[in-house]
Write a structure and sequence with these properties.
By secondary structure, this protein is of the alpha/beta class. It has helices spanning 75-78, 102-110, 126-133, 148-156, 165-181, 200-212, 228-242, 262-274, 306-314, 316-328, 336-340, 363-370, 375-385, 399-407, 434-449, 455-462, 464-470; strands spanning 2-12, 21-28, 31-36, 41-47, 52-55, 57-59, 82-87, 141-144, 146-147, 185-189, 216-220, 246-248, 279-283, 288-292, 345-349, 391-395, 411-413, 486-489, 510-515, 518-522, 525-526. Helix 4 crosses helix 5 (165-181) and helix 5 runs parallel beside helix 6. The longest helix is centred in the N-terminal third of the chain and has 17 residues, at 165-181.
Length: 538
Amino acid sequence: MAYDILIKDARIVDGAGGPWFWGDIAIEGDTIKAVGKLDVEAERVIRAEGLTAAPGFIDPHSHADAVAPVFPELESLVMQGITTVIAGNCGSSLAPVNPELREIMEREAKRWLPPELEIKITWTTFDEYLTEMEGRRYGVNMAHLVGHGTIRIAAMGYEAREPTAEELEEMKSLTAEAMEAGAYGLSTGLIYPPGCYAKTEEIIELAKVVAKYGGIYASHIRGEGDTLLEAVREAIRIGEEAGIPVEISHHKAASRKVWGKSAETLRMMEEARKRGVDVTCDQYPYRAGATSLATLLPPWAHEGGMEKLLERLRDPELRERMRRDIERGLPGWENFVEELGWENIYISHVQTEKNKVVEGKNLVEVKEIRGDPDEFTSVVSLLLEEDGAVGMIIFAMDEEDVQRIMRHPLQMVGTDALAASPRGPMSHGKPHPRYYGTYPRVLGRYVRELGVLTLEEAVRKMTSAPAQRFGLWDRGLIRPGFKADITIFDPDTIIDKATFENPHQFPEGVEYVIVNGVVEVEEGRLTGELGGRVLRKR
Ligand SMILES: [Zn+2]
């Protein structure tokens, strides 16, 4: 019989971590049917001499759900070899929805999109959301976590307080509904409103619900800078008390004061594992992070959501209080300005044409360009002029920590990205280069050039490790019976091209990307075919 696709004469790095071997891979439909020296016929033969065939990369930390409804192609992800993402991270998912807050959620969702695009939220429950998403194909497979922040908003709005007993019950039942529908776990974003208003006990209660369904707890922890160690301790405690696996998201030591402390956080994870707490982490391979500019403001300023924040920014007295808090700090709050300095905070995207000049500039430069008296004034003015929709990039990490975390066996590679394209509306702004370059950068820079990891170990961290972590039991390895998600690259040339100045560039050296048996990248170019589906945890 003839197979659909035969990949011939590849060096196969199968994702399990063992040494590469020569072999062929036969695909029928969406499944790998045979691996080894194959003497078979196929409709289509991909000659892979000189190339490495690996399982498609599985991104354990994605925000692709924030753009997938309007940009299903997810080009910057596919072109770096990703075939599956875990979306719904950092406490934020697109469901469940409180019908009364639907319009506010749509407005929030719009902040991450170019001005001409918007997401229509037609669903209420997590199941309705997944059903809606299932109506089409995507560039990559999409598995979802349910966001704690989203659940909290659905149950109690943007309130800066503890939930009442009834509200907590409501949050638990929304969590259960999401897990029943096929979520893979719960995510938190404990520096963002409203996640930052939640006490540890609240999260433990919800994590216990998720644990019953065999899900995972993934966390953007309460601090990655000066409060890093306490924040890691809290994540481990949640795992211990709820009896749930813990994924520490985009792990880093993000302030000068904690540079070097990754040695300690990794030791904490090892010790927790000895006690039986299943904790791991993921990481993107850069010294800078990215989030929204409003994150520079103290937690109280965010109560009630973005509209309220903008209202407070218009009030001179409250504005002065924010300025004071930034100058002096608040207990337990991750104060980026104090930790990093204005010069290390860059504007990544704005919405209006007139402010495009500040994209790619740091806040000291922004102040000068605008002629503002100080940087705080620039932040306030930009947020007001842009209706809150301003992105920032922060240079916060030390290369030694980046490499120490990367080398550790508990680390896996993730993007923390939405998705973009070098053409069309999705080419807006200057997004973090991780949108385009994460995986090729690890394989080119950290494997080939710096020798931080072996090729086989790097591929394991990109494939079977996240597959096992999130329970994607038929992906992440090249084995007969597994889904035909395959990335074929040239280990001698693969490299990221996206930079902070010029991020909208596909990497080099990724030759073929196959998603569920559909060839999406051929000889380094997008074919326009989409094979990715929405996955539900069973
Ligand atoms: Zn995050």
